[in-house]
Amino acid sequence: MRDPYSDLALRRYSLRKCLERFAPYGHRATWDHLCSRAGFGPEDRSPDPARLVAALDELEAARGVWLAYEEGFARRRRKEKHDGLRRPGSDDDWHRCTWGGCGVAWCDDPGVHPSAPLADVLRKLITALEREPGAACPVCGDAALEWRYGLAHEPSSGPVCTSCGIVVPAPVLTPDAVRRARMRPSRALVSA
Fold first, then answer.
1. Domain ranges in the chain?
2. I need a labelling partner for 160 at 20 to 30 A (CA). Which of 57, 84, 140, 178 fits?
3. 117 preceded by cis ω (within 30°)?
4. What is the pLDDT of residues 48-59, one digit of tens each?
């Protein structure tokens, strides 16, 4: 991807292949995010090489944040196992659904995702997982959450932030916030 002598189409393809290993919003939403942040179109077959590198830099920075979290998670689990807690707690259900960093901050609608850098979004999400539950989206701070069914990711239903589009992990929300999200009517689907 970084080789300036490589074919531009191959470099673009290589960046997309990176998303098979690490796509915090899901493959399509992460691609849309990287394209909009780096300033090229998702369908642009010959983007400026500097813009491709900028997108890769953002993805690598976010992956560094995620790998540090995974390392801390593994260290904590080893200690818990040593102390006799063999089965992870319910707070770790979210982590099992995001193995490897895919779908960490799942955005079911690829066109609706946070606009902040990926690394910042992941830091906010990880910080929220390590503190007491709150009543709002840990990424954008909006309390307008709605419960949606039929999500294209595990879990198949959950609270979705109506502002930034992420599926908010249940462990970061208070029971009251989850209850309010369940009561809020989700967007109605209309046929075309």
1. 8-183
2. 57
3. no
4. 999 999 999 999
Paired tokens of 30? 């992460």
> Do 1 and 18 meet the contact criterion of CB atoms below 8 Å apart?
yes
- The 10s digit of each residue's pLDDT in 116-165 is 999 999 999 999 988 999 999 999 999 999 999 999 988 899 999 999 99
- Token look-up 């609608």 returns 109
C-beta separation of 18 from 58 below 8 A: no
DSSP 8-state code for residue 4: T
Residue 172 tokens read as: 């970061």
Q: What pLDDT is attached to residue 191?
A: 45
Angle (CA) 189-190-192 rounded to 5° is 135
CB atoms under 10 Å from CB of 13, counted, come to 13
The CA distance from 140 to 160, in Å, is 12
The structure tokens listed for 187 are 């967007």
Amino acid at position 177, single letter? A
Strand duo 145-149 + 157-161: pairing: antiparallel
Residue 168, token pair as written in the block? 């908010």
Provide the whole-model pTM: 0.90
